[in-house]
């Protein structure tokens, strides 16, 4: 958070990348406060889940974020998608069900906390419409803080120019890469059914993208 504040100060005052923004009302302040609380909840739940679940499975669950985003977008902003878009999200959830049933290191509490983190991440996007112990730890933390700031900045920009649901679907590409890399690094066991479940989820993401394109083309 400190790095985000510092980088934002530089981006606004010195580099003029984005214009300065002021809090104009108490209502706006509470909206920002709610966004911060949701973000904090998502981060805490996500980090807690890593104590009980391997990174690959954690990322697989995170791929269901578009499903929660679609639900929250409808409940909060009353934004409706086409039936084709909603149907394309079914494989996303089905894939996680398959992966969960075959996950060798499945832990119920870790699973529930990870789902809570995923839901919190989805809610946050709607509202906003292995560090190791070595001599390089300071550089790793600095790099992590920098990347975290860039992720936050690009998330806001992508949400501004597209939509909250599209942001979460694009994030699933990261989840797929993170799952593969985590298996390579941590050597956690995976099953054929688990891989199949994640593949079904990614397929659902692809179907969503195509359905979204067609719905936009129809709207225009």
UniProtKB/TrEMBL annotation:
Spans traversing the lipid bilayer: 29-50, 56-76, 83-99, 105-124, 136-158, 190-208
Superkingdom classification of source: Eukaryota
Record carries keyword Transmembrane: yes
Membrane disposition: Multi-pass membrane protein
Sugar phosphate transporter domain location: 6-132, 133-209
Entry annotated with the keyword Phosphoprotein: no
Keywords assigned by UniProt, alphabetized: Membrane, Sugar transport, Transmembrane, Transmembrane helix, Transport
Predominant cellular place of this UniProt entry's protein: membrane
GO cellular component: membrane
Compartments (UniProt record): Membrane
InterPro entries: EmrE-like (IPR037185), Sugar_P_trans_dom (IPR004853), TPT_transporter (IPR050186)
PANTHER family: SOLUTE CARRIER FAMILY 35
Protein's UniProt name: Nucleotide-sugar transporter family protein
Originating species: Actinidia rufa
């Amino acid at each position: 958070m400190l790095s985000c504040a510092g980088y934002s100060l530089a981006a606004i005052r010195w580099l003029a990348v984005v214009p300065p923004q002021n809090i104009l009302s108490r209502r706006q302040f509470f909206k920002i406060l709610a966004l911060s609380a949701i973000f904090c909840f998502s981060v805490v739940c996500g980090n807690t889940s890593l104590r009980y679940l391997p990174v690959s499975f954690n990322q697989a669950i995170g791929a269901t974020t578009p499903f929660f985003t679609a639900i929250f977008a409808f409940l909060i902003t009353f934004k409706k998608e086409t039936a084709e878009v909603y149907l394309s999200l079914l494989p996303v959830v089905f894939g996680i069900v398959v992966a969960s049933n075959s996950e060798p290191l499945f832990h119920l509490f870790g699973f529930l906390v990870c789902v809570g983190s995923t839901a919190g991440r989805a809610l946050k996007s709607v509202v906003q419409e292995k560090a190791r112990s070595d001599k390089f730890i300071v550089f790793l933390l600095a790099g992590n803080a920098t990347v975290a700031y860039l992720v936050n900045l690009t998330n806001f920009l992508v949400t501004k120019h597209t939509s909250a649901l599209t942001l979460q679907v694009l994030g699933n590409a990261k989840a797929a890469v993170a799952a593969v890399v985590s298996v390579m690094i941590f050597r956690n066991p995976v099953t054929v059914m688990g891989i199949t479940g994640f593949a079904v989820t990614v397929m659902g993401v692809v179907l969503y993208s195509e359905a979204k394109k067609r719905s936009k083309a129809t709207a225009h």
